């Protein structure tokens, strides 16, 4: 498995560890001039769950791949946290903020993969 796909997999597992919902992986590799290869988008039901998901992703990815996020933005409000892993950018939203920005729609040309929720 290539390194970027493994990173996406470990990020997804980190999200699932904290019951993050509605995970969507946007594959941007066939779109010109994008800032990264993949977006991983998910949501938590409260600011505290959003932060728990972010911490879980950080810990899981570091433990499994040795990668650290280059930047993490948005933790103060915990409504939309963006995590930059260079080739992969993770977006952890509150549901209403996610609906408002609707990133999946913005990247309509991307190949979208929905990951089933783990209950």
Describe this structure in words.
By secondary structure, the protein is of the alpha+beta class. It contains four helices and six strands. The chain has helices at residues 3-17, 47-65, 95-101, 103-106, and strands at 21-27, 38-43, 71-73, 80-85, 88-93, 111-115. The chain has a six-stranded mixed beta sheet with strand order 3-4-5-2-1-6. Strand 4 and strand 5 (88-93) form a beta hairpin. The model has no long low-confidence stretch (mean pLDDT 95).
Quick overview of this protein structure:
With 119 residues, this protein is an alpha+beta fold. It contains four helices and six strands, in the order H-E-E-H-E-E-E-H-H-E.
Total count of strands: 6
Helix content: 25-40%
Element pattern in H and E: HEEHEEEHHE
Average pLDDT level: 95
Count of helices?
4
Shape by Cα distribution: globular
Counting helices, strands and paired strands, the structural category is alpha+beta
Biggest sheet features: 6 strands, mixed
Q: Which regions are unreliable across 5 or more consecutive residues at pLDDT < 50?
A: none
Order of strands in the sheet with the most strands? Answer: 3-4-5-2-1-6
Rg measurement, Å? 13 Å
Strand content: 25-35%
Distance between the termini: 27 Å
């Amino acid at each position: 498995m290539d390194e970027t796909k493994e990173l996406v997999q470990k990020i997804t597992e980190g999200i699932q560890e904290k019951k993050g919902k509605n995970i969507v992986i946007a594959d941007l590799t066939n779109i010109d001039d994008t800032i990264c290869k993949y977006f991983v988008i998910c949501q938590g039901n409260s600011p505290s769950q959003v932060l728990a998901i972010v911490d879980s992703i950080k810990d899981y990815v570091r433990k499994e791949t040795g990668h650290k996020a280059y930047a993490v933005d948005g933790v103060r409000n915990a409504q939309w946290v963006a995590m930059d892993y260079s080739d992969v950018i993770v977006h952890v939203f509150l549901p209403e903020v996610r609906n408002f920005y609707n990133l999946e729609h913005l990247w309509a040309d991307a190949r979208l993969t929905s990951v089933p929720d783990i209950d």
